[in-house]
Design a protein that fits this description.
The complex is a heterodimer of chains A (about 400) and B (about 180).
Chain A (H helix, E strand, L loop, with lengths): L18 E10 L2 E2 L1 H10 L5 E2 L12 E2 L8 H15 L4 H4 L3 E5 L19 H11 L8 E3 L5 H14 L5 E8 L3 H9 L24 E9 H7 L5 E10 L12 H14 L6 E5 L8 H13 L7 E3 L2 H4 L6 H15 L1 E2 L15 E2 L5 E2 L4 E8 L3 E8 L2
Parallel strand pairs in A: 5-6, 5-7, 10-11, 10-15, 11-13
Antiparallel strand pairs in A: 1-2, 1-8, 1-9, 3-4, 7-8, 9-16, 12-14, 15-16
Helix pairs in contact in A: 1-11, 2-4, 5-11, 8-9
Chain B lengths: L9 H12 L2 E9 L19 H15 L9 E6 L5 H12 L6 H5 L4 H11 L5 E4 L2 H13 L5 E8 L9 E9 L2
The chains are: A alpha/beta (about 400), B alpha/beta (about 180).
Amino acid sequence: MTGPPATCATAARNGAGVAVVTGTGALSAYGRGTEALLAGVMSGRPAFAPVQRFDVTRRRVRVAAAMPGQPALPTELIGVVREACDEAGLAASARARTALFLAVHGDPRIARAPAGGRRRLGTEELAAAVAAACGLAGRGTRSYTSGCVAASTAVADAAATIARDRAVRIVVAAGYLVETDQFALFDAGRVLADDGQVRPFSAGRRGLLLGDGAGAVVVERGESARERRAPALARLAGWGRAGDAYHPCQPHPEGRGLARAVRAALHRAGIGAGQLGYVNANGSGSRDGDPAEANALRLALGDAVADVPVSSTKSLHGQALEAAGVLELIVTLLAARKGMLPANAGFLGPDDACRLNLVVGEAAPAVPRYAMSLNCAFGGANTALVLGLP
Amino acid sequence: MTGATPIAPSGLARLQAAAAAAGLAVSAAAAWPESDDDRQVRPLAGFIVSTFSPLLAEVAERVLRRSGERPPGRVTALVIVTALGDVTSAAQVAETVDAGGRVGPLLFFQAVPNAVAGYLAARWDITGPVVCVGSIAAGLDVSRLLIDDADADEVLVVWVDVAVTEEDRDQAAAILAAGTS
């Protein structure tokens, strides 16, 4: 099961339309806004620091990439959506016709709300509230909760919906802000890096660290963007989604599902592996996940894997869970447009199980025509998104 | 969670209506509860505290058993619909954290709804995309898109709604849907 699905007609994989990104908004531990995100990532300095936001004295690991203070998720989601819509130059009338796809873990209040009030705190209600506050349409607005592929799945769905001419424009937003419950769970699962650094694909890697992340992209039919004279920042050239069929929380060791997702995304983009100029890998820094991803890239890219530059920007901004897919897609887009590939921070030395052409040391100058962002989640869910740069 | 058990669960009816509206044909269906025998869902190894994952697995496996033998190479996607997610586990974690305790490691592995999707996928060779959304309408829209986009030949759609108050009861439903052409 490493090839394309046998009974799915590959001709159906490309819709008639072209989906482009016309606006981006972001928040990370580097600060609010895409400029802060790009500057932070290009600095090569990881944003990890001792957690001040809540009590971590009983935790094994006490580090995360969190911005100062107590940011509130709904407020920050509204902020990134507005930033993206402003960059896209969307008038109020256009926003009112645009649905929101929102990727979140859940309403942050639900776990501590009285039982009788929990039904009002669903993810659909949160999506509707954010859409309303941003002047977006209620109709078509929906929520995604598929863990670390929630946001990338929402982007793929938005691109597919637009390519199939079922919508002109969709705003995809996502957010996760480091909080006490998920921190406790990840600490209990012993997956957090106890040396305070994330070292994807590196010898001596010790695990992941959580990071604040929120992001929004305006995904739009290319024709619509041209009519509005809104510049396309990038094309959503390809997307792929596939499952491992392997385990509730471990990746397939050979990366089979991820390899199929990558192949599907390249197929949709109509490009060969050799045309990829950069991969922002899932690269969580975990012991088992990184080799599985390296295997997936070898399976899907073939000989080209030796040349395609790869880094995981989780080594800088941390693991933003449900927001990871949008945050990392935005990092990929910003980096490609700047002509600088982000460094894979924390690298101590090569691991034979993770042989890739890693960008190590500092950001490297390059102008990719195509760049890919990968995400993997529990349940063996994998996504690949390919951007085509103008 | 107990008490009167209606024979025609509303979740299944809503799934079937949404599938029809999306132009999808349903080849197998299941619900919880389906009869008075459906009082306590079977535990699922590795999943604790909450009935969310066991319920999801139970209705999904009922559908897969009823659908008969699936042709080799057929690509099935799994779409999970849940408005609140596993709120039982989430509340348990919050209570433990607020009391200054340490949460158990097993709760980490069920922290997102797609963990149980991995259990099902491994058991039934479900190799298509895994997606979790918050409404039945979105779930069937995504299903239609996955089929039209050739990412899946068929979609197993599972809706789960665990009880949040003493008066509530656990409900779940699942369908196997494919294009009509």
